[in-house]
């Protein structure tokens, strides 16, 4: 092969290499641009997600604070309920302190005036000489449903000492 042919062949080869290089450069530049666009989209998405996560964390923190406050209030209310139950029990017990439950008195024996009936009936049963003053009741009534046996009578005495005396004599 002659020098001229070698140069032509070398020029063609150099030209082919240059064209291949240009094609590769264009292809790499296009792919790099595509990657850059994708990266920009990913960065934007990450930024949005970071904002959303921050907002969620703020909401969670606020909710945790609210839950803590609510639990504290519930604890205080539970203490108050316990205190009020104890107080109610004490008041109920104090109000029942002067009560006596009388059983086995035939139904309708008291008529329409249970208080008057018991104020006479109690001294008769326990002995009139045991009572220097009349037995005084605040109120009296039967409790429960009518069944085959007489319902008990609840009597509330005005004087606690009268109640105690009746319990001793009974």
From TrEMBL:
Coiled coil: 39-94
InterPro entries according to UniProt: Laminin_dom_II (IPR010307), Transposase_22 (IPR004244)
Biological-process GO terms, alphabetical: cell adhesion
UniProt domain Laminin: residue ranges: 22-99
Pfam families reported in the protein's UniProt record: Laminin_II (PF06009)
UniProt keywords, alphabetically: Coiled coil
Source species, domain of life: Eukaryota
Stored PANTHER family: L1 TRANSPOSABLE ELEMENT-RELATED
Name of the protein in question: LINE-1 type transposase domain-containing 1
């Amino acid at each position: 092969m002659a020098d001229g042919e070698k140069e032509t062949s070398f020029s063609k080869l150099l030209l082919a290499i240059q064209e291949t290089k240009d094609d590769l450069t264009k292809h790499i530049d296009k792919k790099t641009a595509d990657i850059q666009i994708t990266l920009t989209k990913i960065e934007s998405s990450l930024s949005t997600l970071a904002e959303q996560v921050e907002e969620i964390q703020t909401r969670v923190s606020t909710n945790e604070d609210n839950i803590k406050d609510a639990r504290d209030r519930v604890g205080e209310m539970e203490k108050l309920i316990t205190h009020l139950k104890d107080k109610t029990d004490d008041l109920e017990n104090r109000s029942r302190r002067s009560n006596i439950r009388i059983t086995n008195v035939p139904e309708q024996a008291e008529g329409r005036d249970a208080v008057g009936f018991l104020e006479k009936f109690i001294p008769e049963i326990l002995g009139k000489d045991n009572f220097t003053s009349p037995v005084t009741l605040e109120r009296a009534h039967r409790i429960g449903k009518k069944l085959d046996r007489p319902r008990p009578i609840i009597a509330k005495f005005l004087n606690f000492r009268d109640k105690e005396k009746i319990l001793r004599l009974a």
